[in-house]
Design a protein that fits this description.
The complex is a heterotrimer of chains A (294), B (323) and C (606). The longest helix of chain A is centred in the middle third of the chain and has 36 residues. Chain A is mostly helical. By secondary structure, chain C is an alpha+beta fold. Chain C has 20 helices and 23 strands. In chain C, the strands form seven sheets. In chain C, strands 16-20-15-19-17-18 form a six-stranded mixed β-sheet, sandwiched between helices. In chain C, strand 17, helix 16 and strand 18 form a beta-alpha-beta unit. Chain C is globular. Classes of the chains: A mainly alpha (294), B mainly alpha (323), C alpha+beta (606). Chains in contact: A-B, A-C, B-C. At the B-C interface, helix 3, helix 4, helix 6, helix 8 and helix 9 of B face helix 1, helix 10 and helix 17 of C.
Chain lengths: 294, 323, 606
Amino acid sequence: MNTEVIDFSKMEKGDSLWDKAWYKFKRDNMGKTGAIIVLIYFIIALGVWFGLWGTAWSDTSDLLQADPSWKHLIGTNQIGQDVLTRVIYSTKVAFEVGLVVAVLSTILGAILGSMSGYFSGTWVDSLVLWFMGVLDSIPFYLFVAAVAFALKDNPFAMHIAMVSTFWTGTARVIRGEVIKLKEQEFVEAARSIGVRENKIIFKHIMPNTSHILLVQGTIAFVAAIKSEVILSFLGMGVKDGVSWGLMISESTQDIQAGHFNNFIASSLFLFVLVIAFNMFSDSMQDALDPKKVS
Amino acid sequence: MDILKFALRKLIGGIPLILGVTLIAFILMVYFGPDLTYEKLGKNPTAQEIADIRHELGYDQPFAKRYGDYLKQLITLDFGNAEIRDAKVSTILKETMPVSLHLIIPGFILGNIIAIALALFAAYHRGSWIDKFIMTSSVVGMSISFLIVIIVFQLVFSSSFGLNLFPVRGWEVYNANGNIMWGEYFRYVAVPTMSTVFVALGYNTRFYRAVLVEEMTKDHVRTARAFGHKPASLLFKSVLKNAMVPITTRIMFSIPLVVVSGSLLIESYFGIPGVGKVTFDAIIAGDQNILKAIVGLTAVLFVIVLMFTDILYRVFDPRVELK
Amino acid sequence: MKIIIKLSLTLLFCFTLVACNNSEPIESNATPAQKENKKYPGKKVYRHSLDGAPTTLDPVRSATIYTSFVVKNVFDTLYTYKYLKRPYEMKPNLAIAMPDVSEDGLVYTIKIKKGVEFQDDEAFANGKGREVHASDFVYSLQRHFDKKFKSQGAWLFSGRIVGLDEWKKQGSDYSKTIEGLQALDDYTIQIKLTAPYPQLVYTLAMGYSGIIPREAVEFYGSEFGSNPVGSGPFILKSFNQEKVVLFKNPKFRKEPLNLAFEGYEESLHEFTEIKSLEGKSPPFIDVMEVNFIKETSSRWNSFTKGNEIQYTTVPKEKSSSVIMTKKPLTLYPQIVDNYHHTFLVESGFVYSGFDMLNPTFGNNGDPVHDAKNKALRCAIRKSFNWDQRNRAFYFNLGTVFPGVITPSVMEFNPNADQESIILDIEGSKELLEKAGWTTQNLPVLEYHTSGRVSSRMFFEQFRGFLKKIGYPVNKVKYKPYPSFGSFNQALKSGKTPFFTLAWSLDYPDAENTLQLFYGPNKSPGSNSFNYVNPKFDTLFRQAKVLQPSPERTKIYQKLNKMVIDDCVIISGLSRNRIYLWHKDVIMFPDRDVLGGAFARYVDVKN
């Protein structure tokens, strides 16, 4: 079996987990590539937010299913819309969905997971575990469909459904970690000087799980973007605007007719971001793993 | 005897879970769900006809009563009639669940076995190019949409424009007596299985590798290695065995979702009359009876699985108490 | 670990072995269809496909063409349409002849054939199907007025048959006789109408009028919809989400095929080889599988494979690989070489409309407001680019026509004034300006539709149309519904100021589309436009009791013009469908009006 060889002479004794992680990360080429790609996408999304590009995504024209040309670099779709503009706008939509779901589900998971872990064995823990079990045992697409129906007109129906199911993953991991942490000395010390419990949880314990939260957040982000594809296909996804999922759904028929632009562009953009994010997430996980740094 | 008592206690402990699931499912699907009144009426309905249908569908009854009825249905396993087809829900489920099982099992087993094998291989050669290659492929596999995989595979393996090796759609695996014809079974299950395995492989391999690596870096393994134990035997004896706990957990927990909900997309595209297609149709049509049945049964199965998982833990790790 | 790898590889190897074993040898005399015949050895099988699935097989709920397809094959109807004659012409099915109608058009006397028996089924005593009697027809129609059976077709007969509505109000007691619906004897039916109803005969050919034995309904109860028992040419063998399997009914009456009577014309039908069936009695096949395949790629792959389904409509995205030239419509040689084809205009149409009761685009009684809104509606209609819509979504094969008299009915006038379907951006802008509409005061247009992916593309194109007349993009909003059911509900509750729909004709008579504007039919009826125009209603009632005639056609045209002039609807397009079938199948298929009733004449070559 092989083991990683890391030159620890460069690190100093007092370095925190984050410093050591950054050091490791810098040397991980795949992770760096991933991070750079994600950054590029983020800049694209920002540009759309500020109206710099991608705003004409809904413009139709008479040039239906056109091949790539100078006017339309990736051609047009079935109703004459420019594929490139749409694919760029979808980046913003993807980040919106991904960020909203990732942040909210991570926060929710962190809070409930910490409480459950700290009070493990009591009714608080049982309640949260029960709640997690309930949500986990409802098949995901059924749940989203039900939420979509229940919140008919709400444009955030999909986001709500995703957050409601994704938080359980984070919560479980955090709970496990908190159970371990609360046995540690710094917690005992805090308690002995009379720090109140919720302060212990939120100010002392939770920050020590931040590396886990970061990783979980990235996982949720990717899961959100990927779920959106299937949800849009089923008609339950993004309502106003366009997303890669919608573009892929639109184009599944086009590829039968031999028009691949729409399909390839949207699938590729999605694919590259997902891979980049996965690589980034993986190397972050590796970098932040305290066991590998000791 | 101990195990039986343990099992019973776990089952009873699972009741709040079942209640919770059914309540939430009920609220979402039935209470807020789609109003099927106009689906069932003809082109020019009268006010009386509308009122009749609403009464029939139970829309004019109080919440508690409707929820109570749902629980009763779950216990008696009688969910009434389905909307998507004029038959009892129980009849439809009885016909379609075995089909879904037959469809999913090869992919499920293969997907996990191949993933564990790949994960072992990758973990063994941790850090080398083999490991990186397997991991990158996994990430790639994880990043391709299931939908695309299905469409492409059907085109490549089954259609006359591709290799034309397998049927495009259908499930003619039973002969006149209702017995399964294994040759035909292989032909029809091949492409769906390949699609499932392709998609699941990425996720599974990554997970198993992570678990294995975690085990491998544990102190007792490093110690054994320092003492000169051969790496291969270590891999199997210590690492794999101890990793079986999280591995089992994962496999067990994916069962209810796989069994009861089937695979929506696969059954739709390959024309396989299983539970997944029924669920898919029910979601689109808003068939509450079927959705209630499926969610309820998934919850029950989930609880049973939880119970078995805990028992299995004991088998793999004697330190775990049957508390 | 090595063991695991070896095991997996062996498994994979076996897989491929088995798969390869099953591929066809190069030389073989059996047709592809026959080689797949492992399931029905020695029988003639025909594999049909439908682009949707029925949810029930009960005639009383035969609202979709999918249910109707199966119903028309398992059950008998009094009348049906001739196999090959177009435009469609009626002919007797279970009835002996066209009905005997009294002078005032109120009394119909219909005699049915003797010796026709229901299929054998355990619902009957000794499992043997008994003879079909006139009382069975009466029972079948009565079921539409028994709320126990949740009929979807009652509207066809509501208020038209003497005593039927009262019978329902009094509790649907089957022991009571209804004055307007009686079996005079075992083989004679008498229907008394409240007013002349020329479309009655059409309704007697629809799936809704399938003839049902009471024993089966009582025996199967709520599961009758999956266990249909009739006297049609086929018997149901199995029914699930994927398909229906029908077996030939050995007891079906022998009626030799008379091709001249059915409308056979050498120039039109010679390629189908239907001539070989002259004088033979249908059904000619032993087994018919009706596969429900909504996913177009899946259906196309299955059709082109050769040993699966033998019939399909050409999905739109395949159009460019199938169609060589559009005018005249010709197909590529490799398609023509391998398959038979025909193309038909659908008997329905797609359109968008305004809700006149909603003051956003409709009326509120104030003449100034109403006139201003009328200008707005007409302006929106002028901005609609039918050409672009036709090209984008219908491969430019759709037939665009003005108003609501569709190309599939006799009263269609190909020379009608085309103004309402011509793109006129300048005219539209002029109308808006004159009426005082500006980008500030234009109302928000909510586009209501069911939320499938294709609906969204329709919307985005429509928004593009409106942009050209100056409608601000952020004032055109997409309002999708999670399912057609919820959209339908909103439609019928008056919550949709602007909507897009499709309508399929129930029978080949323009009355079926004109009734969409008849005042009394307003929501929750089929008049989703909530259009109430007393002049229209009076004229409509006049035409309703007339038999097809030049006089009636003139009235229809007038009604059509009223609807067009008031700019209530943006209409319309009828889709052209190309039907393809394998060359070993002898048939001339129809999807809409004749529907499933053609299936009894299908034959498969050996």
